[in-house]
Amino acid sequence: MPTPVTRMVTTPMRITITATIITNVTMMIMVTIITITTTSIATTATITTATSMLMTTNEPVGAADLAEREAAALYRLMTWLSPAFPVGGFSYSSGIEWAVEAGDITDTATLADWLDTMLGDGSGLCDATFLVHAYRAAEADESTTLNDTAELAAAFVPSRERQLETTSQGRAFIDIARAAWDADGLDVMVAACRAPLVYPVAVGVVAAMHGVPLAPTLHAFLHALVSNWISAASRLIPLGQTDSQRVLVTLEAAVAATANRALKATLDDLGSATFRADLASLRHETQYTRLFRS
To answer: How many Å apart are CA 94 and CA 105, to the nearest integer?
Structure first.
């Protein structure tokens, strides 16, 4: 009788362990997936890192998910640079009113070109640079440096109406901040400045005294500045609400680029090449029919 043969068949085992690590770094998400595959032959580890991406409104974040300081900073920036904050920005056009009457600005394309130039080569970059230096001086408690920056910023305005625009908003911003959003050391920093505080310097000082980070303060300031320009133009050209938003979308990259340049700029880098915009602010002073104060 034949002897039975016992045949043993080894089936490779495959065990897969997947771990997902989610890192949240100040409104950024990084997803790392680690997959470990074990067989009878070898063990292989595969690490896949997804591209970091900005959180969108489709993925809402509650206040509890933000650090307390980040939540406070966001709340204050949204308040201070909101159109509802009473600094009177709605009454100024920065010379855009004259540019519309002269035919330089007629539609969304010409408006976007005009504002892009003002941002990168004119008052936008200058104001951003002054904000950065005022913030750093106030943060370091360097009252002499802050005063020098404030004096230079006040002297850098090209026309009487632009001087009125930026000093009036700066004074209103400081007065409201001291009355409703006071902070330790704010009065001392304001008193150290002999020249009137122009708007970007005022924003920089208040943000520094409240400990609001510089980079988001600068970006929020430029967004508010551009939004106010577009708001004025929408009433003058006129533009619809959707077209106004299209211009704001078009200028997103320019705002980010201007902020990055200002963070690295020295006061020696200051300058302007927007002759037509400066001329517009001068010509507006004698414009026959006017809706805006600048």
So the answer is: 13
- Separation of CA 48 from chain center: 32
Q: Where are the alpha helices (DSSP H) in the chain?
A: 68-80, 96-101, 108-121, 123-139, 143-155, 160-180, 186-191, 199-209, 214-236, 241-250, 252-264, 275-283
> Dihedral through CA 154, CA 160, CA 162, CA 167, nearest 10?
50
Nearest to 12 by CA among 46, 44, 43, 41: 41
Distance of alpha carbon 278 from alpha carbon 290, whole angstroms: 17
Q: Are 94 and 294 in contact (CB under 8 A)?
A: yes
Question: Residue 65 is encoded by which pair of tokens?
Answer: 């998910």
0.90 surpassed by pTM: no
* Residue 28 confidence (pLDDT): 39
56-70, 73-87, 193-207: least confident range: 56-70
130 within 8 A of 200, measured Cβ to Cβ:
yes
Residue keyed to tokens 């980010």 = 256
CA dihedral for 76, 151, 161, 282, sign (positive or negative): negative
Contact yes or no for 265/132 (Cβ under 8 A): yes
